[in-house]
Write a structure and sequence with these properties.
heterodimer; A: 119 residues; seven-stranded mixed β-sheet; four-stranded antiparallel β-sheet; B: 110 residues; six-stranded mixed β-sheet
Chain lengths: 119, 110
């Protein structure tokens, strides 16, 4: 059974940093493309970014609002995906979901972790 | 990248069919056969319902079907059931090597 468990969310001040983790199991993580998607309270889904597998060069792509502030990485030895978030803004407040991505879709999702950016 | 446009709400009676539209541009929906659809119940994670315009993952009911014409994709739910009441989002790959989601549609079963 595919399992994705996010952690690391919490309250952070504007301008601060936070690192989210996503523990994966039940599928071949080392060959999987992985994404982060967020959802602001009461709003729709927004793609944050993606990392390809090592075989894909571990290439990362990001949405324009987070490019240069957020960084996605992975540790295949630990089956864990990370999202490093810097220079956080109030508009980054959202539930952050990690997802096992198919070539161009989001196959399985975790339950999400809430990040609140407020002073 | 602007969100894809979906109707805010669609409703239908049990047993009826409903269709949700998802309108983008030639740089996303119209340019690639990479449209997917997600169902999200309140407080839950999204669930993949359709990928690559019209393909259903295993385990998803065949009452769900997808199609595309030009810059608009559609999700049809036939034989509407109470459990189908949820929010639905489309998504597309874009020419910027990113992904964009739709604005979301709330489906109500009357």
């Amino acid at each position: 059974e595919v399992q994705l468990v996010e952690s690391g969310g919490g309250l952070v001040k504007p301008g601060g940093s936070l690192r989210l983790s996503c523990a994966a199991s039940g599928f071949p993580f080392n060959s999987a493309w992985m994404s982060w998607v967020r959802q602001a309270p009461g709003k729709g889904l927004e793609w944050v970014g993606r990392i390809k597998s090592k075989g894909g060069g571990e290439t990362t792509d990001y949405a324009a609002p987070v490019n240069g502030r957020f960084h996605i990485s992975r540790d295949d030895s630990q089956n864990t995906l990370y999202l490093e978030m810097n220079s956080l803004k109030t508009e980054d407040t959202a539930i952050y979901f990690c997802s096992w991505s198919g070539l161009n879709y989001f196959n399985s999702w975790g339950q999400g972790t809430l990040v609140t950016v407020a002073s | 990248q602007s969100a894809l446009t979906q109707p805010a709400s669609v409703s239908g009676s049990p047993g009826q069919s409903i269709t949700i539209s998802c309108t983008g541009t030639s740089s996303d929906v119209g340019g690639y056969n990479y449209v997917s659809w997600y169902q999200q119940h309140p407080g839950k994670a999204p669930k993949l319902m359709i990928y690559d315009v019209s393909n259903r993952p295993s385990g998803v009911s065949d009452r769900f079907s997808g199609s595309k014409s030009g810059n608009t994709a559609s999700l049809t739910i036939s034989g509407l059931q109470a459990e189908d009441e949820a929010d639905y989002y489309c998504s597309s790959y874009t020419s910027s090597i990113t992904y964009v989601f739709g604005t979301g549609t709330k489906v109500t079963v009357l």
